[in-house]
Amino acid sequence: MMQRPLRPEEYSLKETSPHLGGGGVSGDKLTTTYDLVEQMQYLYVRVVKAKELPPKDVTGSCDPYVEVKLGNYKGTTRHFEKKTNPEWNQVFAFSKDRIQASVLEVIVKDKDFIKDDFIGRVLFDLTEIPKRVPPDSPLAPQWYRLEDRKGDKGKGELMLAVWMGTQADEAFPDSWHSDAATIPSDGLANIRSKVYLTPKLWYLRVNVIEAQDLIPNEKNRFPEVFVKVMLGNQALRTRISQSRTLNPMWNEDLMFVAAEPFEEHLVLSVEDRVAPNKDEVLGKTVIPLQNIDRRLDYKPVNSRWYNLEKHVIVEGDQKKKEVKFSSRIHLRICLEGGYHVLDESTHYSSDLRPTAKQLWKPSIGVLELGILSAQGLLPMKTKDGRGTTDAYCVAKYGQKWVRTRTIIDSFAPKWNEQYTWEVYDPCTVITIGVFDNCHLQGGEKAAGTRDTRIGKVRIRLSTLETDRVYTHSYPLIVLLPSGVKKMGEVQLAVRFTCSSLLNILHMYSQPLLPKMHYLHPLSVMQLDNLRHQATQIVSMRLSRAEPPLRKEVVEYMLDVDSHMWSMRKSKANFFRIMGVLSPLVAVGKWFDQICHWKNPLTTILIHVLFVILILYPELILPTIFLYLFLIGVWYFRWRPRQPPYMDTRLSHADTAHPDELDEEFDTFPTSRQPDIVRMRYDRLRSVAGRIQTVVGDLATQGERLQSLLSWRDPRATALFVTFCLVAAVVLYVTPFRVVAFLTGLYVLRHPRFRHKLPSVPLNFFRRLPARTDSML
């Protein structure tokens, strides 16, 4: 069955009116603290501990656990062996929307091999359970005497607290949820909400200066020496030293990304290229990062000599031993605190501050995000013969990542979780992604599976009005090898609050990146390599958290593969350029119509304006700026009222050819068949051939300009030089206003005085020589 094509409005943003905060919106300011989400009611049961439980087996002891039962939902604590005074301190949360029973049953049982024994229970009528709303202090647990099945008082007591609350309750994140009843205990950690902080990243600069007194293994040749530097998985090497002596020099900078806490050591090895694919280690040194100098600007750091140690195998003992000798290496090493370590694409940066905290400026505001719900999610996997989706959200801004809890088996999950970030720059982007959790089984069952992406939303803070609550339903769109697909919608509430409007406006005059990026810039190649290393470090650290934020999730949020070749993106970028140039083309066409008197009245008005500006040239700049001001005021009526969202038309996702999409999703290096790769290579050659022609034409025009004065064509240069002399004399004796006036009249002349043939200056320019004649 073919999927029907989606209409453009189905890919668009929709404004929503959720019942936020359990109250209403009053003039864009909301009435409660947890105010950007809809309130969700939960029944909370905190099982603290028990005492004086009666023995149930022949040993005179019991293995107690507690079962909390509400209708069809049942949660159990862990059990203790041979303990009559156990402590659990576990919280259970039952969604009020799904409660169908009228009685809450808390049962203490004894774990047994055949059948668990009943010890006692406590019953609660749901109509009598108290409500608690933060910031009220938590409800104090009380001791309850256990009853038998008949309702008579038995032996043993259980300490409990039972209350009705919302998701704003501090017990909510760590509680067992009734909708997770089917999840095994080792999978429960993977469904909880969590806030993560990425490690603090530094650029590490290693300046390799020189080495002294190297001892090569072969004495009869000049060594070809280079230095290899390693930090964790990162490895860089210097060029081979030009001074082929035992005291080689390099004076070369190598840049790495280091993450706090500095667990890894910097390893340097001086190596000799003895054959094309054979290098011999002449010496090594290991440097802990904790001892390295940190700097905030470009002030010189003291250099140091480090002794090199050689690894040799001593005869009779196969262990590697380090033998110290007189070789040493001269290094200048520092951790750069004045740069911002880029771990995401610069187009969607969420943080632009330098690494060193001393250089941070005060925050300018607060970003609040309410992750409400999703609607119309598609089934992402099959379970028990039917489609299912276990969705969770991830939001990233600056160093703080958040993950909502996973809602089990729902195509319309409701999270209603609220998070807050400090904002230091308004020209930053928050990214929200929705994923399907494939690790609910926990343990080895989930090994090797990957969480599936459902879609992503980016919101640029500078496009938001301050202190306004934006409630919209964003389309979740992913690009698959089969084409673009809408996976559902996610409903968000966003508010950007600023402490001072003047501070925000001042930020627009400041450099985007810290000043070290401009005073001592890194090359584009360096920045690309360093960004790749930074994303690897961030994804590795977050994947080691509990619950882990997995590598595929982090890479999707950070747009790791955004630099890969894509025919679709190339087309989209070409049409973006055309969209930027189209107003200039339109102005050119309009001016051409004026010059050709298509509308005589407009042309006459332009003549009048032109004469006024010639007579009063001091009005030219004020007129231009006044015109731009009026255009801006005119467009204010049609200003965007909604945040930006993923645009399939702009991305050319809806018109991409299947083969182009297959190429975009190909691995690197390619895994496709040779004939497909050959066809794509030929297509790329044809596209590159057209680009090559355009670049060649641009070079030709530039070389023609150069040849005006180069005497490559002696007659053309003689004509141009003579013209320049005559023009200099004429312009010297003629007032500038007269020249400008005559030039304007000539340009705006009536069609009766025009020729269809090209003008004399254009003919002259096209006849000038270029260096194309010398091209092979």
From TrEMBL:
Residues 24-144, 185-306, 348-474 form the C2 domain. The chain crosses the membrane at residues 603-636, 718-748. Residues 1-17 have a biased composition (Basic and acidic residues). It is found in: Membrane. Its main location: membrane. Pfam families: C2, PRT_C. Residues 1-26 are annotated as: Disordered. InterPro entries: C2_dom, C2_domain_sf, C2B_MCTP_PRT_plant, C2C_MCTP_PRT_plant, C2D_MCTP_PRT_plant, MCTP_C, QUIRKY-like. It is a multi-pass membrane protein. Coiled coil: none annotated. GO terms for cellular component: membrane. Keywords: Membrane, Repeat, Transmembrane, Transmembrane helix. Belongs to the MCTP family. This is C2 domain-containing protein.
